[in-house]
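step 3/5: co-fold with zinc ion
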Amino acid sequence: MDAQKVLTANAIKKPELLAPAGSFEAVCAAVYSGCNAVYLGGKGFNARANASNFELDEMKRAADLCRLFKVKLYITMNTILYDRELRAALRYASELAEKISPDAFIIQDIGFASMLHKNLPDMPLHASTQMRLHSADASDLLKEIGITRIVLAREMNLSDIKKAAASGVETEVFVHGALCVSQSGGCLMSSMIGKRSGNRGECAQPCRLPYKSANRFPLSLKDLCLAGSVTKLMDSGVTSLKIEGRMKSPDYVAGVVSVYRRLIDKKRDATKEEMLYLDRLFSRQGFTDGYLFSKPGRNMFGYRTETDKITSKESSKKLDYYPLLKSRPEFCNQPPSPTVYTINEPQDKVIDYIKPLNYDVFRFYGDIPKDIKFPEPAAYIDIPLWKINKIPHDYAKGNIKIRVIMPAVCTDSDKAVVVKLLSNAKDEGISDLVITNLSQLNLCDGMGFSLHGDIALNAVNELTLDFYKDKLSTIALSPEVGIGALKSMKKPLPVELVVYGKLPLMYTENCIIESAENKNCDRNRTNCKFMLTDRTGAVFPIFREYAHRNVIFNSVPLYLLDKKKELKQCGISGKIYLFTDEKSDKIKSVIKMGEQSSTAVKPFTRGYFQ
Ligand SMILES: [Zn+2]
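step 4/5: write C-alpha cells
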C-alpha cells in the first residue's frame, strides 16, 4: 500500500467499541446495539465476584451470538491468585479456550499470565486496568508473557494516552461508567477494613459511603463520560473504547452502547441531548472527564442522589433500547468458525529458592525524627523519592542504606521530573530504589540502581516472584497473603513483609484533602495532612503524595512484631516497619517492641496474617 492509501486506511479505521455484560440479556443488549466486542466473567477468578456472571453453557450461548454478529468476546480472569488457586484457574482457562474460544483473556496477576502463556501460547492476553499501567513502558516485558493489549489506567490524560497508543501495543481506554477513586489495583481499603478484597473482585465500595467531613462523600467520584471527546479519542490511535458496567442492567448497556456506536460511526462528539440521555440512564450528580484533560479537582466528586435515582427510573420508561436491532450492520449467516487454540499440558514450573536473609526496613512516609537509633540488623531506611532532601544526614551508616521509594504513579507527563529526582538521588549516593509499578522496571533500568519491589506490585504467588527474580534484588509481598500461603510459597528472591504500620489503602489521583474539606488546597504546599473519620469513628491519615496525589493510610496499624517465630518459619527476609503519622516517641517505642517481640497493644490489626 502506498503512503496515501495507508493514511486513508488509518483515517477511516474505527476503534473497537467494547461493552460489559453481566448476563446473557446484557450480551444481547450490547450486540444488538452495535458493540464490536463484549467482555464478561465466568463463575470464578474475576474482578466482579458480585455480578451474576456466566456458567459455561450460558457463556457458550453468548459466544455463539457474538460470533454470529462478528463481535469479539473477552473473558475476565482479572484478580490476583494465590498459589493454591493457580492450577484450578489454569484448568478453567484451558476449558474456556477449548469450549468457548474467546478472543482474549483479561488478566491482572503477573504470575498467572506467565503460567497461562506457557499453556495457551497463542491465546491473546490483555493486561487489566487492575495492573495499574499508566504508560506503555512495560509492553515489551508484558509481550514475553503473552500480553498483547494494555487496558490503560483511568487516570491518564489525553497526551499520555496518545503516547501509549503510538507505542505499537494495543491500547484500551475506559470511556464510560463508574470510576474508582483509588487507582485500580492499588486499593486495599475494602480488603483491610472488611476482608473483601478489591483485587479479588469482592470490593465492598467503602469509597461510596458517607464520612464525617465537610463533604459527606469525599471519596465518591462521579461517573466517567467521554462521549463529548469521542473524536479526540478516535484521533489518539487507541485500539478500543471500553464501557464499564458488568453489574449494570441490559437496558443500561443498550443505551450507552447505542450512543457511542452512533458517535464512532459518524465520528462526532455527543450532543447536549445525547449527554442528557446518558445522564438519565445513570450518573452520580452528572459526569466527569477530569482525568482526560488533566483537571482533577473537587468537581470530579459526586454521589448517587435520590434525584438521580428518580430521574433514571422515570426516563427508563421512555428509552428506545435497541435502535440498531433492525439494521445489524455486520450480521452474517455464516458465522466465522471459532479459533482453535493450542493447549499444552500443564507443567509445574521449577522454582529455585534461596535461604532467607534476616534484616529490618524502617520506612517513613511521614516526618523522619532526627534522633532515632536504628538497631541491627537494620538494612534499609526507606523514604519517598520526592522527600529525599528530608533525610537526616547521619542516618546512612554502617550497614544501613537509604532506599528511595518511587511515586505510586509515573506517567509519561511525570517522567522528566521523576528522572531528575532519580538523578539527584544518585548524586546523593543512593543506590537502592523501590519500584511501585511494573512499568518502572523499564524507566529505572540502566540507571544503575539496585531495584526492590514494593507491596504495590501485588505479589501473592510464587510465579509472580519467579517473574521478578532476575529483575529485582528483593520484593515485598502483598499484605493480602495469608500465613498459610506465606509458608508454602517458594521464594526465589529475598521477600519482605510489612510487620508494623498503617498500610497504604488507596493511591488517589485527586486530592482527597480538598474533596473532604470542600475547599481548594495550596498546590505549593507539599506536606498536607488530613485525618478522615468514617461513620464508625475510625480515623484514616491522608498524606499528600508526589505531584499532589494522595495516599490514604489505614486507621490502625498492622502488628506482627510479636510473630518473630512464625515469620522465620515463613521464610521472610526483610521485616518492614512502616511509619506514617507516628510521633518520635511512638516510633522509638515501636522499634523497641520489635526488638523485644512485645505483645500488641490495641488498637491493631492482624490483617491476613492469622
Ligand atoms: Zn491537596
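step 5/5: annotate
Residues 511, 513-514, 521, 528, 544, 548 surround zinc ion (CB under 6 Å).
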